[in-house]
# Entry
Amino acid sequence: MNPVIIGDATLYLGQCEDILPNLSGIDLILSDPPYGLGKKMIGGTKRFQTGEGGLKTLGDWDTKPVDNLIELLNPIAPIKMLWGGNYYPVPASRGWLVWVKTNGVATMSSVELCWTNIDMNSKHFNHPCNGWLRDHPTQKPLDLMHWCLSFVPDVKCVCDPFMGSGTTGVAAIHQGKKFIGIEKEKKYFDAACKRIDEANSQGKLFSEIPISKPQLQEVLL
Ligand SMILES: C[S@@+](CC[C@H](N)C(=O)[O-])C[C@H]1O[C@@H](n2cnc3c(N)ncnc32)[C@H](O)[C@@H]1O
# Structure
């Protein structure tokens, strides 16, 4: 199927295993693949369990981690940042990113971990979870994805092969980068197209990276 092109974003509806081998020119994979939690995710608020947009709309995409994820992504881009990296057999790294959920509930994880293959100090970011105005049950906060991109200021083309509602793409477009997104579920793909179209209309929002500018030293693994 032909991609949807919105400004500097190219968005594919489909399985990333089929689409990724045909792509080139990607500097960074910044993604949030399925964690494989499925029925284990039984905590949270009552609304998270039963409300519109909550877990009951999760579908079956989170029943297991993606097979051979690192082997799939290694040929695609030199730099990788993977939320939920602790659910995958990733290589050792000192450059983990930690999101501390400042409004977390006792029955859910109070932090999430992002594996990177960047040789840098591990860092944490304090930020609340999204409220209920969201397009995906596990939508990441936009500021979190801006924070991730702040560690790789020279990257020109970002890919998210498990795009969901397109949060990575919105941050990439705000920062004037090219973006390639892939999502297999039509309803999330449509939400991503809408959000990225809005981001594209807003134009580049950051003439400078807003949070911190650690030096990217070398790609380790
Ligand atoms: C954790 S969610 C991503 C949420 C996203 N970070 C956001 O902010 O909206 C993972 C997404 O990957 C999609 N997905 C799972 N397996 C896939 C595959 N093989 N190819 C493409 N998309 C896939 C799921 O449909 C789901 O929307």
In short: The two ends are 33 Å apart (CA to CA).
